[in-house]
Amino acid sequence: MSTPPTVKATLEETPYIVSFSDDLGHTWTADEPLEVGGGNTAPTPERLILASLGACTAITLKMVAARRQLPLTGVEVELQLNPAGRPESGNDIVRRVTVHGPLDAEQQAQLLKVANACPMHKLLAGEIRIHTELAA
């Protein structure tokens, strides 16, 4: 059984900058825009969620296209959170996927179906339970 993905978030001295590290040794940061007191030095938490979905979508499409030997030469994924304003309940993510290569309509339809089945899509669209506790 593989180790579950683990990320540690640490609030830095500079207001609203958070440093991240994961169990694979990667590091990155998040920040808030200037208008709310941040330094705008890194993506906001909302943009990190969108980036996760975009990365997963593009990677999944590439993997499946390679396995099925589809002539996919590139993928672009543009995502927006609540583009029509925040709804009364829930949230809306609009994802526009552009695939490149000499793909016919059937192959494009296959890839759209695959995009909707990527692991992050399933995670975000499914039930999420968050258990929070204070560490000693």
| Highest-level CATH class of the largest domain | Alpha Beta
Main β sheet profile: 3 strands, antiparallel
* Beta-strand residue percentage: 15-25%
Q: Could you tell me how far the N terminus lies from the C terminus, measured between alpha carbons in angstroms?
A: 28 Å
CATH homologous superfamily descriptor of the largest domain: K homology (KH) domain
Radius of gyration: 18 Å
* Continuous helix count: 3
CATH topology of the largest domain: GMP Synthetase, Chain A, domain 3
Overall tally of domains: 2
Helix content, binned percent: 25-40%
Identify the quaternary structure here. Answer: single chain
What characteristic shape results from the CA principal axes? globular
Which structural category do the helix and sheet elements fall into? alpha+beta
Q: Calculate the mean pLDDT score and round it.
A: 96
- Helix and strand pattern: EEEHEEHH
Low-pLDDT runs of 5+ residues are: none
Strand order of the largest sheet: 1-2-3
